[in-house]
Amino acid sequence: MRPVIGISSSLKEQMLLLPTDNINAISKFGGLPIVLPNYEEIEVDLIVELIDGLLLTGGGDIDPTLFGEEPHQKLGSITPERDAFEVAIVKKMLLQNKPVLGICRGAQILNIAVGGDMFQDIYSQTEADLLQHQQQAPRWHASHYVNVKKNTLLRTITQTESLKVNSFHHQANRKIPDGFEVSAVASDGVIEAFESKNHHFVMGIQWHPECMLLNNDEVSAKIMNAFINACKK
Q1: pLDDT in tens, 101-149
Q2: Which single residue of 14, 64, 102, 196 could bond 204 by disulfide (Cβ 3.0 to 4.6 Å)?
Q3: Got the DSSP string for 15-31?
Q4: pLDDT tens per residue, range 30-45
């Protein structure tokens, strides 16, 4: 039986928005994709019972009051309803040890949900000489490298110490809480992936493998396949 994968969606002017690359990636590797609403938290328990895994997708910025900060002047558009829904469903999924994969914004809201924090804008809140993390290239194009740490789930999946990834973000994770660990960083020090030490499969990655699959990227295929396989269990 195909595992049921809940896919988070963006919300704009009372419309749910979701690039079909996310749906196609789940379906390609054997999952049954179900688009989730940004709905009242009271429904989260029912949704978690229905799904075998959760894909947290990309999108807009995250409300900084969720991690104890006020809005930076470089903060972009936020969607409080989406933030609340995703934080609630992440917590329920982790309690049941069901797989979670966070992509870009999804990696950030995953970290916030478990007690981490983030840069509201990496370019103005860090002193490092940063790479271009908002690439001016097609979404399937891999634009910079990340270094994958040893003895991590990501390293086990990818079987490589260096990946070339795409990049579409101005926010990034900063503090990763206890029980989780950084599994990949860019050459400028920006956190590119993190994962749980205590769950079967809980991982956040800053890039977009669903887009790189359009260019038949092997590592992206390995990541999506590993996620779906974890959901089958």
Answers
A1: 999 999 999 999 999 999 999 999 988 889 888 889 999 999 999 999 9
A2: 102
A3: EEE--HHHHHHHHHTT-
A4: 999 999 988 777 789 9
The CA distances from residue 71 to 114, 117, 173, in Å, are 20, 14, 16
Helix (H, G, I), strand (E, B) or coil at 62: coil
How far lies 18's CA from each of 24, 57, 89, 151, in Å?
11, 8, 18, 34
| pTM, rounded to two decimals | 0.96
| 3-class SS letters over 130-182 | CCCCECCCCCCCCCEEEEECCCCHHHHHHCCCEEEECCECCCEECCCCCCEEE
Percent of the chain past pLDDT 90, that is, above it, reads 89
Phi, psi at 71, each rounded to 5°: -65, 125
Distance CA 194, CA 25 (A): 21
Structure tokens at 231: 């959901």
Cα-flanking dihedrals φ and ψ of residue 163, to 5°?
-120, 150
Catalytic center residues = 104, 208, 210
Residue with tokens 């790479």: 131
Total residue count of the chain as it appears in this document: 233
